[in-house]
Give the backbone structure.
Amino acid sequence: MMNFKQFALGTAVALGVGLSGAMTPAAQAQDSNYVPLLTYRTGPFAASGIHIANGMHDYLKMLNERDGGIGGVKLELEECETGYNAQKGVECYEATKGKGALVYNPYSTGITLQLIPKAGVDKIPVLSMGYGLSAAADGTTFPWVFNVPDTYWDGASVVIKYIGEQEGGLENLKGKKIGYIFLDAGYGREPIPLLEQLAEKYGFELLQYPVGVKEMQNQSSQWLNVRRDRPDYMVMWGWGAMNPTAIKEAVKIRYPMEKFIGVWWSAGDDDAAAGGEGAKGYKAMNFSGVGRDFPALDDIEKYVVGAGLSSTDAETIGGTLYNRGVLNSVIIAEGIRTAQELTGKKVITGEDMRMGLEALNLDEARLKELGLEGFAHPMKVTCEDHAGSNPVFIQEWNGKKWQQASGWIEPMTDLVRPLLEQAAAEYAEKNAPWPKRTEPCPN
Amino acid sequence: MLYDIFIDPFVQMYDMPDFFLQVLWEGFVAGILYALIALGFVLIFKASGVFNFAQGIMVVFAGLTLVGLNENGIPAYLALALTIVAMGVLAYGVERVVMRPLVNQPDIILLMATIGLTYFLIGFGEFVFGGEPKQMITEQLGLPTGSTAIEMGERGLIILQHIDIAAAVIAVIMVTALGIFFNKTRIGRALRAVADDHQAALSVGISLNQIWAIVWFAAGLVALATGIMWGARSDVSFALEIVAFKALPVLILGGFTSIPGAIVGGLIIGFGEKIGELYWGGLVGGGIESWLAYIIALIFLLFRPQGLFGERIIERI
Amino acid sequence: MFYREAGQFKTSYKADQALMPILQDRVGLTVILLIAFVAIPAFANDFFLTSIMIPFLVFSLAAIGLNVLTGFCGQLSLGTGAFMGVGAYAAYKLTTIFPDANVIVMVLLSGIFSAAIGAVFGLPSLRIKGLYLAVTTLAAQFFLEWCFIRIPWLYNYNASGAIEVPHREAFGVVVSGAEATPIVRYFIVLCITVAIAYLMANVLRGRIGRSWMMIRDMDIAAELMGIRPLQTKLMAFAVSSYICGVAGAMMVFFWLNAAEPSSYSISLSFQILFMVILGGLGSLGGAFMGAAFIWILPVFLKFIPGTLGIDVAAETVEHVTFMIVGALIIFFLIVEPHGFARLWQIGKQKLRVWPFPY
């Protein structure tokens, strides 16, 4: 036993020595643009996170392989595993920011909230595409945070608008019951203020069914409550393991699926498939292309997945969440390209990237050029508006795959925008002294 | 306020009997599954005094192995057989690598070792089969998937999932089989002897190591059954791990060493938390399910520290 | 040879009862403190400070807190994470109610709230012990976590449900919020941790600490000898929760900058418990060693393959890290159930007799 203990002691000492030597930062690469990807392929949210991570990684990798990067400069990609855990996310941020990171995509509202105050200090923009803090759409208060193409509040207003259409007009919502089942975290709670406001305005009753992060896979109580309350429509803000479980439970209590609408993050193919035949008719919002009939996706298959440069399963290309990841990378890539044009530099910094994102203009012609015609609604970022409040469509699960079920629906911008600005002002006040915007507008 | 707490819930129960019965059924099913996890704990605690924290992860690991093997093209029943083999290997490995060197250590060290095992199994399971949740192969295993609705005349209907009924039946079969095994077979008696007194058991020629490997294997089988049942209700993923914590209050209620206690405790917790959540939870904003079971157990402990069926704790200086 | 106390004579009781009667210990500690206060601030980069040193110190403090309860008083607790959370939310409320007060004072005061709550959840310990008690502390963990989610007053009705640390200045420098430099935060965390560790080292060898140890070793015997179990156990719960609460408040104020309820979940409780067990139950130095091991090893495993130029997928690293940490925990428990503190003692013995084996 004594030898064993000596061995253990030796291990401990060796480890200590190893650690002290290993903590020197990596040398900064000067001939490439460095994009860290905070992803999660483990933990309870891996089911959704894996597809997003694959999509983000593959598109940027494809640009490297096909075009040799952007503007002739290669992209240096590095994935850092966060596990959807805010602590690990911050750790990834601290570890990668020194290497000249251009932009962060946290894919977690919790991590986004932690990075928002840091972004302005470290001069690295945060791109929270369709998630994060809704109020960050106000570019004058949050110059370093972008949430194109939509905020959660835009999304919530689209859902209500769509339900109104189904009922033959928003005025018919009076007296209806709309259930809201959500992940009980920053993410799921974000739309509540707007939903409450809309409930007051249109006279419907909002019933809330929070699902704790721990209880994600055990939602029978929430759905029993749904069965008792019999809401006319159900709206879901779910993520990870919550989605398939919720859809299964809805099928189980025989809730009419065509009246069950998810946010764009509850739109995964695996999520809906979990409900089997019974899930037919389940709907979800979406703002990125359905299916895989896009030339850019073919290129990904040809240059990246086919070449064995990715861990993506070729069958999952074109899935809703995979395409979402691709769209995210399109925005990053276009941001870099715009920044290169604006500054004339090839290798850019976080500050240049911010300008690039703020001048982002992804119009139809550009989408076509990228081989992504109709993949997303054209989007444009301005100094004041970092979200753009772009239209969203509704897709429907036909038992096998997703199909577009509506045209582009405009959010209730007139209602959402003042609320966004008010929320931004409140945020700045709560976090006083919040730094004033010092960055000039590029356009 | 007082009306909401003391009268309104009962009025609701009376007004909507179909809903009340449905709640009871859900509580029953949840209770059965908690009881199955608790059963695994009890088996190991009885024979070795180890509080096996890894039981929850063994449930996930067993389910994941089964589904993962099937995904790689192995037919369902063969995958099931291979998973049983894997649980056997795991049991042997745990006995050989973890349990044997830690004989006679204090409880807390053994507890920590099983938490270490939990970490290892999480990493290993995800490493081999990937981290994303997987669909349980319910149909391929010949388990029922449909549901039956029982009409209650004018009063509404109750929906029973066939898989839940199967879970209940399997739980009953398993408990009966374990009962027979413990009481009637030679190994079962040896197990009880070990549970009573390690040294006395050793001195009459019972091999502790063999017994431990067997209980861990039995616990592995219980974990597999639990994994299939729970996996069929939701998906097989490591998020299930947290559900396994619910087995702890069940154990407190039932006592760490009693198999019937695990079943009864499981049912009390299952009924208690569903009824509590649906009829009283709304008063405080809902979601009380996450802690109600622990509070029930805590209050219970204050009056009966050894659990419902546990052996009386007698302490001497 | 290197660690020989022979020849160090004490000429007064005071010298004999000093915290560190041996010269080598005093020298060693001085060197460590010099490294911590001078060398690290002078040479470390931001990543080292924010992702390694600050969390390490915060976790060390939390491990000291749990060690008081579990290591010295023998009460197993799985609610550490929640008690840390109470400290964090209390500090957040305090600093938003009194925005002009010194935030460091607020952090230290916040521990009082978690001490009170810890004492309440310690009440069952009078009737229950061992694993049963562990389960009742789980009740505290899950109940408090639920409170952090469902009582919006605690997070000032933020839509996000998270607490975000506001910008605060003290002594003319920014100490919290995004603009606070890592070096300032490091110094605050270091000072608080060292001060509390020093305080506890003295409390533990005094009357209070000894009465805790009596309760741990045999509570019935301790009661017969005049130790009142109610006061002693509750005091252990209160002191332990106070320290954990301060650690939790520092965690959000000087490290994370924002926290969600899930930051204080059950996995944090386990993490701290690991640190205590691996470091060595009933040893203050062990708490530091355990924290270093459990916190730094995964960071090390995560970022090393990248710096060495080995291309491994991020998720593989994560999975392998889990496996290695799990396996090492079991390994160290088998090799030395009394933790690193005992290994250190063995090491000292080796140094003492070197170059001879005995």
Remarks:
- The two ends of chain A are 73 Å apart (CA to CA).
